[in-house]
Amino acid sequence: MKKKTAIAASALLLLTVGGVSALNVINPSWRENTIFATAKDKQLAWLKEHEKQIVAWIHSRYPKIEKVQFDWKTLEVGPVSNGVMNVGYNLSVEGKFNDIPETVIWVDFLLDSADSIPEISKITMNQPPSIIKGNTIYNFE
User: Fold this and answer.
1) d(CA 18, CA 33)
2) Number of domains observed in the structure of the chain
3) CA-CA 20 to 30 A from 20: which of 4, 13, 127, 128?
4) Which key words tag this protein in UniProt (predicted)?
5) By the 8 A CB rule, do 50 and 91 touch?
6) What is the pLDDT of residue 60?
7) pLDDT tens, the chain, 141 aa long
8) 44/24 same-domain check
9) What pLDDT shows up at residue 30?
10) Cα dihedral: 78, 82, 83, 87 (round 10)
11) Are 68 and 55 in contact, with CB atoms under 8 Å apart?
């Protein structure tokens, strides 16, 4: 009887772990609002939730930019250094604008720690919107 219980429990555990792993591969965004959410999941969820505000901020700085298509897979958080020590972190996401595939735009947020959630008041652009021609990047405006 103990062997049957152990085998059944092992099989159930294996199916559960396999199911969660398969779910991660098929739909990685399922974790965004769960206890399994990582800092990156929470940051990505915040960015998607505030996408219209981010686009409005970009449009206020660059009126010719009407639409922005973010590539959420490019979300990256890295340290900002003054050469001696880290003074903060930078969250960066890349995208295209105005439905033109030869364009590139980077939006950055200053963070206190690598796990911080971005704030719309700390939005910035370290690079201007650009157009890619061949192997060269030109400023949009």
Assistant:
1) 21
2) 2
3) 4
4) Signal
5) no
6) 95
7) 777 776 776 767 776 665 655 555 566 555 555 666 888 999 999 999 999 999 999 999 999 999 999 999 999 999 998 888 888 999 999 999 999 999 999 999 999 999 999 999 999 999 999 999 999 988 887
8) no
9) 56
10) -50
11) yes
Q: CA 24 → CA 19, 21, 27, 77, 103, distances in Å?
A: 9, 5, 6, 21, 31
Pair of tokens at residue 62: 């660059």
Both 25 and 50 in one domain: the answer is no
Query: What are the structure tokens assigned to 63, written together?
Result: 């009126």
Alpha-carbon span 55 to 69, nearest angstrom? 9
What dihedral angle (degrees, nearest 10) is formed by the CA atoms of 105, 111, 117, 120?
-60
Residues 46 and 103 in one domain: yes
Same domain, yes or no, for 85 and 20? no
The token duo for 23 is: 């779910």
Classify the C-alpha dihedral 25-26-28-30 as positive or negative: negative
Residue 20 identity: V
Residues 79 and 24 in one domain: no
Domain of 122 in residue numbering reads as 38-139
